[in-house]
Amino acid sequence: MARTKNIVKINLPGGILTAGDLRAIVKAAESVGVKEVQMSVRQQMYVSLPGTRLSDFTKVLDDASIFYEVDLDEYPNIVSSIVTDEIFNQPQWLTEGIYNDLLDSFAFRPQLKINLVDSTQTLIPFFTGNINFISSAVSNHWYLFIRFPKGSVNYQWQGLIYSADIAALSKIIEEVIMDNQHLFYDKTHANGPLLQEMVEAKKKMVYQLNYE
Hints:
Elements: E1 5-11, H1 19-31, E2 38-39, E3 44-50, H2 54-63, E4 69-70, E5 78-80, H3 96-104, E6 114-117, E7 131-135, E8 141-147, E9 154-156, E10 161-162, H4 166-179, H5 181-184, H6 192-202
Parallel strand pairs: 5-6, 6-7
Antiparallel strand pairs: 1-3, 1-4, 2-3, 7-8, 8-9, 8-10
Helix pairs in contact: 1-2, 4-6
């Protein structure tokens, strides 16, 4: 028996929604009589609609190649602070183009929460992700803080991360955490240095070690 109501979640990577995708979502909503949507703190759009209209709604999204989940949240959105661009006195190197390049470099759909946040702004929280990249004063380099899933341990990565390495490093970190949940998932005392050691055993990274 179909659910009375379904919740469709649409990720807006980095909080960015193209005009084409907006048009497709509005068209889909209008086709099923949806009058309003909700936005989450992780820059996701939620649409509640009768189960009898679900297929009509998702067909339009499918035709537009828009990713969505129905009554699930297996793939948390990548959050960025691009919405604060030009509001705060952000680092000169951190531009809209950098944000877009970073988001485009993710060739996988993360299962852990990833944040890309400007250190000088105050609207977007810094540490709500599991993998938190915080801009530094060094051009195109980021601090990395790991907040282990379902736990309270935070670990500051040793070394600054180059922008071009963020997507690849995020993928490896997620793989190591998910493949070793007995060490890093829902643990009171997850070992940050061990995680970094295991990640670097998979891929040797070059870090900027001169902290600001």
